[in-house]
Design a protein that fits this description.
- The complex is a heterodimer of chains A (251) and B (291).
- Chain A is an alpha+beta fold.
- Chain B has 291 residues and is mainly alpha-helical.
- In chain B, the strands form 3 sheets. Chain B has a 3-stranded antiparallel sheet, covered by helices on one side.
- Chain B contains 12 helices and 7 strands.
- Chain B starts with 8 loop residues before the first helix and ends in a 7-residue tail after the last helix.
- The chains are: A alpha+beta (251), B mainly alpha (291).
- At the A-B interface, β1 and β12 of A face α1 and β1 of B.
- β1 of chain A pairs parallel with β1 of chain B.
């Protein structure tokens, strides 16, 4: 008799994103002479949703520091991952050494033989860069050494990446922010999405037969190692690219 | 770049855990355990930097009210102290797995609700009525009294400190019993003793526990048990100071050792829960008044 065997439940849940509520207001006063003063005010929220700033009290230096620490939490100290190669107030960049990873293609029937294909293939060394404005770039590099600002960049040989190296995000579910702890999540988000079509008008790879032929051969296992000779030189270094991150993509 | 729906890790995790716990528990007839794993991200407060963690909790939904009086009295008639030995074993292992309301637990609830924590109503009457005999009589008539317990349950069902039968005696009784049901009950008790699941430290839980997995009333005419439990649960719910899960363990997501330890603990827990389920089933099924 096993009437209840299937009734045993093991519920697994994940805490959702925190709900934000208006808690306090800070009013900043300034004088012509450059003096600054701030007050902290509680908030009265009306049932209809309106809010009123209540009488305040001077904001102490300690309160300012505590608030600043909370608001800039992502810049608190911590161990630096080996793959992290660059970080400033806006941007974080990391290196993915040459590796074998699974890729997913969904292309017009016939281009890669089947409409949908997925294989584990070799990849060149890559550098990803993410800015806070969700500007997400990827470039290829040659060799296995950790890149420096003088490392030459090559076009990432992937579909759905513009000439500037910017990744077409589409409807990919991205990590909430770019931080040292999230590097793998960003990398996985790239490789676990569908590659559907080349986004560059120029040469994506130097390969007889073009980009589709290149990836068809890769998926068919014709290149056990990634053929670095096929990479297209972008004529600039990693340092230069990271200094000109505001380049517009060419869609 | 179109998103490629990836694997639903939460669902996968749930399916794997559910499969595991079902295999460990086996088929249950009475008890209805449930489990939950709640994962949370790193704490946001800079002053409380905690890593990603999960809280695992478990408990039992109530199977309702079942009568065990006829079975236990039959066992006690078969051999003095056999009924109480079985009942004590049931209580002991229920508190290590999924607690059940038994007569002794119900009387503790009555003590909590009506008797100021005493073993009868005298203190409560003294507090409320003083020496006024008429008022005392009136109050006694309207309340749950110790006499009600004594008339509903045999004394041995309410007393925790009685001598119990040992393993060797139980084996002898089982071997010589002509009634297969008696032998089966004893085998279940001995099985639970052999498993000897680890105890659970209830003292660190705050509030009163109300997550009992079922009620073992004495007989069909036992209205006392439900009356007391209704009042007890009402009192506790009004206080707001209670908990329902039978266990909870916070584990850091990367603390593999702690997680492995929990799985080991639960293996033993599941075996004992299955044994307890069998015992409750044996005591509450069939017509034990006929021998």
């Amino acid at each position: 008799m096993n009437a209840h065997e299937r009734d045993v439940k093991f519920n697994v849940s994940e805490e959702g994103p925190a709900e934000m509520h208006l808690r306090r207001a800070i009013l900043v006063y300034g004088s012509k002479g450059g003096g600054q003063f701030a007050t902290v005010h509680d908030i009265a929220t009306a049932p209809g949703g309106g809010a009123t700033i209540l009488p305040g009290r001077p904001m102490t230096a300690f309160a300012v520091q505590r608030l600043a620490r909370k608001l800039t939490k992502r810049r608190e100290g911590g161990f630096i991952p080996e793959k992290l190669i660059f970080q400033d107030a806006d941007t974080i960049a990391w290196w993915v050494p040459p590796s074998r990873r699974r890729v997913w293609f969904r292309c017009p029937e016939g281009q890669l033989i089947a409409g949908e294909r997925s294989e584990v293939v070799s990849h060149p060394g890559l550098v990803f860069s993410v800015a806070t404005a969700r500007k997400w770039f990827v470039w290829a590099i040659t060799g296995t050494a950790r890149p420096t600002d003088r490392t030459k960049l090559f076009r990432a040989p992937y579909f759905n990446v513009w000439e500037s190296g910017q990744v077409c995000v589409g409807n990919v579910d991205l990590p909430e922010r770019a931080s040292a702890e999230k590097l793998d999540e960003w990398t996985n988000a790239f490789f676990e999405s569908w590659f559907t079509h080349p986004n560059v008008h120029a040469e994506l790879v130097r390969y007889r037969g073009g980009a589709y032929r290149f990836w068809r051969d890769m998926l068919d296992g014709k290149h056990a190692e990634f053929p670095e000779r096929t990479l297209v030189d972008l004529g600039r270094t990693l340092g230069e690219a990271l200094q000109s991150r505001n380049a517009k993509h060419d869609d | 770049m179109p998103s490629r729906p990836g694997p639903d890790h939460i669902k996968t995790c749930q399916t794997v855990l559910e499969g595991w716990v079902r295999r460990e528990l086996g088929a249950l007839r009475m008890l209805r355990p449930y489990f939950g794993m709640h994962m949370r991200e790193t704490g946001n407060d800079a002053s409380q930097a905690v890593g990603p963690a999960c809280l695992i909790e478990w408990g039992g939904e109530s199977f309702g009210v079942r009568c065990v009086g006829p079975a236990l009295e039959c066992l006690e008639r078969h051999r003095p102290r056999l009924g109480r030995t079985v009942l004590r074993a049931l209580e002991r292992y229920a508190f290590r797995t999924l607690p059940i309301y038994t007569p002794a637990v119900v009387m503790e609830c009555a003590s909590d609700v009506y008797w100021y924590g005493e073993c009868d109503e005298e203190m409560a009457l003294e507090e409320a009525c003083g020496d006024d005999a008429e008022e005392r009589r009136s109050m006694r008539d309207s309340m749950v009294t110790r006499a009600m317990f004594d008339s509903t349950f045999p004394r041995w069902a309410l007393e925790g400190r009685t001598r119990l039968l040992g393993r060797r005696t139980l084996l002898q009784i089982a071997e010589s019993a002509s009634d297969r049901r008696i032998a089966s009950v004893i085998e279940s008790v001995l099985g639970l003793h052999a498993m000897n699941p680890p105890g659970y430290d209830w003292t660190f839980r705050e509030g009163r526990f109300v997550g009992y997995s079922g009620v073992l009333a004495w007989g069909r005419e036992d209205e006392l048990t439900c009356r007391v439990l209704d009042d007890y649960e009402q009192m506790v719910s009004e206080s707001g100071d209670y908990f329902e899960t039978c266990g909870e363990v916070p584990i850091g997501v990367e603390d593999h050792e702690a997680l492995t330890g929990w799985f080991e603990y639960m293996r033993s827990w599941c075996r004992a829960t299955h044994g307890l389920d069998t015992l409750i089933w044996q005591l509450s099924e069939g017509d034990w008044s006929v021998k």
